[in-house]
Amino acid sequence: MNGTDGGREGDGDAVADVDRSPRSAADVCVVGAGPAGALVAARLAERGHDVVVLEAGPRFDPDDRLDRMERSIRPAGDGGSVWGTGGPRDAYTSAGERFYPLNATRVKGVGGSTLHWQGMVMRLHEADFERRTRDGVGEDWPISYGDLRPYYAEAEAELGVAGASDDPFGPPREEPHPMPAFPPSHSDSLFAEACERVGVTTHSAGNARNSERRDGRSACVGYGTCQPVCPSGAKYTAERHVARAEAAGARVLDRVPVQRLEHDEAGERVTVARYATPDGEEHEQAARAFVLAAGGVESPRLLLLSDSETYPDGLANGSGAVGRYFMEHLFAGMGGTLDRPTRQNHVGFVTTESHQFYDDPGAGAEGTDGAVPAADGDLGPIKLELLNYAGPSPVEMALSAETWGDELLDRLRDGYGNHVAMGALVGQLPRAENRIELDPSTTDDHGNPVPEVNWRLDDRTRRTLQRANEIQRAVLEALGVEIEWSVGPEDTGPAAHHMGTTRMGTDPATSVVDPELRTHDLSNLWIPSSGAFVTGGAMNPTLTIAALALRAVDSMDEQLRRS
Which cofactors does this gene product need (predicted)? Predict the structure, then answer.
């Protein structure tokens, strides 16, 4: 199936007014200006290195955020088109058991996925790094939670995370979150008694948005449109670190999609990134070190496009693992109506979660009023969320109604403001057949084969989704909800978390990057990305991406100073 999903809009700087020629000599060339690329660029530039960032998409004007918000909430609007995703530039195909809606879940531009993300940030658990040892499935990471722990703390400070540090099921931490947590929403307070009655323990959710003024950005003012756009700037976007990188001397070019990476005659080092400009020209950016930070789909695609006589199956692909082991987080949900006001849609993000079933998803939960029964069988981790924005908006209801006047008013009064729901994320194990490949039958606006997503679910994931639904039903029934809908296990969808496609390992025969995020095959190429994830857990991945990027910076800085 082909996926173009609409067309692009003309955002960013005027094409003719921007110099997009290469810098004559750079220490580091970073491909991608999302969270990983921006963090790396800022840190390395601030340490005195000459950095160039090449971003395929435009630089968006912050003054347009209110307009984007208004477009996103119009009933005829399309959240993806708010950021210009689609058209030949973003063409892709989907193969395998399930269609993968890639363009509904990504943004190309300065800021990357953080332009439209929900902003939820949690650390992976200790067990996530030891899945083979603990559960006999998947693979172990070559690093432990302890190795990444100090970088998690740095990442929380860099992104600006609000949280209460009150998760009794979470991994150990020595420091509190940088900002206090957001208070529980009104709907969270409705859930509290029901969760207690069935034995489900809740706690605050970590959010990369300001609960108080910080770093020149306001506290959250409650627009409630976090996805796809935060008009106030309270939610973190990687634009913040792009600005820091530029302030330290880095050069950031937008609208310059990299066409391929080229290496030296020995096949040991990347020498240039070849990129295209809007005027139809191509340029080569040379550097001493290269950072591929284009995400879990475009990073493997660029490696596959950069094949050569030395690397006939794609650059850095001596293992054959580039593009393979694609993992996602799947959604399970359930909701309905309550006989009291719930203040739905007043908050655009999750403020309360439960990680009680993360490390032991089959455990029961005994409460004073019924119980969540224990479950047998091989299950993956489950992250439960109390959703604050379930149900239609009154505008949607009015425009879809077939009635007018007092009858319509009665319908709005009876049908709006009493919806509640629970969500959950569950993870997939890495499977070689789930992969990103090139599809030469479809090309992008530069004539390159587009990415093809081969994706399917396995029985373990389906069982875990069913388990999440069981827990959700127990809580909702205890709350007295008239359940009207559920998602999972067969009608599940992806969470837009692209993991595993440039996996980390110590064996060059089975992995792409080493524990420092440097490729086994080329000594000056790093890939700090969710693609490095060996297993995906069930936590939103951006905080771990940021922690890995900060870890990679130390490795790159050391090598640059030695050479």
Answer: FAD
